[in-house]
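Translate sequence into structure tokens.
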Amino acid sequence: MVEYKIPVIAGDGIGPEVIAEGKRVIDAVSEVENFDVKWIDYPFGADHYIETGELLPEDALKELSKCRVIYLGAVGDPRVKPGILELGIILRLRFYFDQYINMRPVTLLESVWTPIKDKTPGDIDFTVIRENTEDFYIGVGGKILVLDRGFFSDDVVEFLDDKNISYILPTRRNSHFYDTRIHLNGHFYYHDRLIRCGKRECGNFFLYLFEDQELMLEERKTLYKKLDENRIDKKELTARMKKAGKILILSDMDVEGHEIYELYKKRETVEKMFDTYKTVLNADKIYLQDDESVFGHVFISFLSLYIHCKLEQLLKKAGLNRKLTPIDLLFKYGKVYHVDLGEHSMISEVPKKVRDLEERLGLNIFPK
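Result follows.
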């Protein structure tokens, strides 16, 4: 009888419960298909980390590498600050074993209800493939980990320093680091927005402070409205006004301020693509029932997002991504009209600014 050795990291929260039921299913299948399973349990997770301070040691990774699969449960626990378990277990596994894709088969099971009309198990059978070690997850092997402020804590900073991972980590607005004096003696422009900036070295890392002038005015206006509505008092107004429009970022890298800001915004760009897909294209709002309509809607939404991303890349290549968005570009090109006159056609006059933009982008759409 064939025996399979399967290491198990049950994880935290609902993880052990789900893993236990999964093991029951696999054990039942093994009896029917005539094979044996030897489960090898590992303790790694929140409880083990709290008790020992250990996440996922090198020796364990070497043991795991001898097996063909790893049965991994959910990881994360409110007792451990965000980022510690995720970086130390999930990302460590992904990069160690070069798990560059996350493949998720989707099938409709017998006797399971689905909101999609008149569909049977044979109709729903596809696979979702997503990246697993790039974009949000870069940060090991000479790359840079760009996090959001939800990961921020002193423990995460200490962990990143210990692992020699280059990082960009925005702080929370209530962080004590905002009390650090940083002179805003530099500036640059991002999408035509004036950004003042400053930097200060603090031990093993650098603090980068950015002040977005437009955001500052918006936030101050909002604060005064809250004051007028008695939602905050004058003391809170004064305290929050000092931080209006400011973004404070920790990083171990000693570079120019605009480089840190642009790397930080790269993460925002990925999130913006998802937001574009949902809010601009309304791609998640499907009220259609027949196959052709659903497929057509998803296909057009995909093409639209693809074009949106291509325009982003085009602007970046031309060095215009800090001044224009794809929507701005379409708006500018929308000032030129193509007129169909039957056997002939013509375009309206091309404004000089659009001509200049056309030359900068190198598209050669308009006749000379």
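Note: Residues 281-368 form one domain.
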